[in-house]
Design goal:
There is one protein chain. The protein has a single domain, classed as Aspartate Aminotransferase, domain 1, CATH 3.90.1150. Helices cover 35% and strands 27% of the residues. The protein is built from four helices and seven strands, in the order ααββββαββαβ. Strands 1, 2, 3, 4, 5, 6 and 7 form a seven-stranded antiparallel sheet that branches. It is globular. It starts with 12 loop residues before the first helix and ends with a strand.
């Protein structure tokens, strides 16, 4: 079985954000960093070259595959902001309906710009995602 390709790195999340272009995306990264730190109470940690994660959990699937991954996080990508809520967005329709303009996949929320969403609702979504994940796997601070 292959290992998880996205792993913690020694890169500083603040240094990573400082390197982001364009400036608007860098400012949004700084805002999200503060929001996630305040909401989770955890320190940020880089996962791979471009994801800022918070918390960690060990998963083990019925297939036998297991590994460690961040509990929540984000990536201020050039095209869109990617926000990771694990274990996914399937049960969050009432919160998502109040969030604002977005799209999403199974566990990744996509936002064009932070002005499109309500940051208080995003904090509520982060909290709900961590609570749900904690019911399935023990989550520890980063």
């Amino acid at each position: 079985m292959s290992d998880n390709k996205t792993r913690p790195t020694a890169l500083s999340p603040r240094d990573y954000i400082a390197s982001i272009e364009p400036e608007r995306r860098r400012r949004e990264g700084e805002i999200l960093l503060g929001l996630f730190e305040k909401t989770t109470g955890w320190k940020a940690r880089m996962w791979g070259p471009a994801i800022i994660g918070f918390g960690e959990y060990h998963y083990k699937y019925e297939s036998g595959r297991e590994g460690d991954f961040m509990a929540t996080g984000f990536s201020p990508r050039k095209a869109k902001l990617s926000i990771y809520i694990l274990p996914g967005y399937a049960d969050y329709a009432p919160i998502l309906a109040r969030l604002g303009k977005h799209s999403h996949g199974k566990s990744c929320l996509y936002v064009n710009k932070l002005d499109d969403i309500d940051l208080d609702v995003l904090a509520e979504l982060i909290t709900a995602g961590i609570a749900d994940l904690s019911r399935k796997y023990p989550v520890k601070p980063s």
